[in-house]
Amino acid sequence: MKEKGRTSEMLIPSAIMGSIAFILLFVGYLKGENRHLIGLKFASNMMIKILPLLIFAFIIAGMIQVLIPKELLSKWIGIHS
Fold this sequence. Notes:
By secondary structure, this protein is mostly helical.
């Protein structure tokens, strides 16, 4: 159930984050001492620790959107759509 415009909402933030990541990787490479590889190793360790929590959080968020009426969610968080 794809809503119109949802994909394009995340395109700009994704491009910005990707650009920052590649710039920082490049800076780490230029600094030498394999800093870019050390940074990627830290990132992969962090991802392994956090990924299960993210998966469960997305499942919970999706199920809440499907199971709880939108009017009740709007009332709880104060957004009227």
